[in-house]
Amino acid sequence: MKPFYFLPYFLCQSIFRIFFRLSVKGRKNIPESAPFLVASNHIAYFDPVIIGSILKHEMAYAARAELFGQFLIKDLIRKLNAFPVQRGKSDISAMKMCLHILQERKIPLLIFPEGTRIKTGKLGTPQRGIAFIAAQTRVPILPVYIENSNRLGACALFLKRLRVSIGKPILFSDYQHLFAEEMRYFELAQMIMAKIQKLKDEIHPS
Length: 206
What we know:
This protein is of the alpha/beta class. It has one domain: Glycerol-3-phosphate (1)-acyltransferase (3-Layer(aba) Sandwich). It has helices at 3-19, 47-52, 71-79, 92-105, 129-137, 152-156, 172-175, 185-203, and strands at residues 23-25, 37-40, 60-64, 82-85, 109-111, 141-147, 163-166. α5 crosses α8. The chain starts with a helix and ends with a helix. The relative contact order is 0.19.
């Protein structure tokens, strides 16, 4: 972990634990070695910071391209391994960067399968991008469910608790049958979202 990354990592870890009562279930499921994909639901801008503070490894993630035009933010997030992505359309350069991070830099990569924040509390429809990246790199996929990151004020007032639940990694052997004859990306994306849904259901059983 590079020095500039370690200080924010340590500070954020402490802040989320002390002030927002961060509870993490399933830490033992985090792979000891990188690279791997982190697949999480997305409800707040702070999600990458929260997830990054939990992992044992330096992590990269995509951020909306507009942030890289803001003077005070762009240099900071670049140093924290963010890279720009154009929302709402196919971004070839961002996809190439995802493959570079996993194949060359060999660090974890955070991807939100839904492609955007979902504010309703329900999980959204997954996009095929994460499945394409997984199929190309064959790295483990770590499912993560995050809750109340959009209610940090309530967490600070002890009305809510910031929760993160981490599932067992999905290995290439678990989904390689989807690519035996054709590239069934959407089915893999659905499999990933089903794992995230299961983590949510374990917190809130019906």
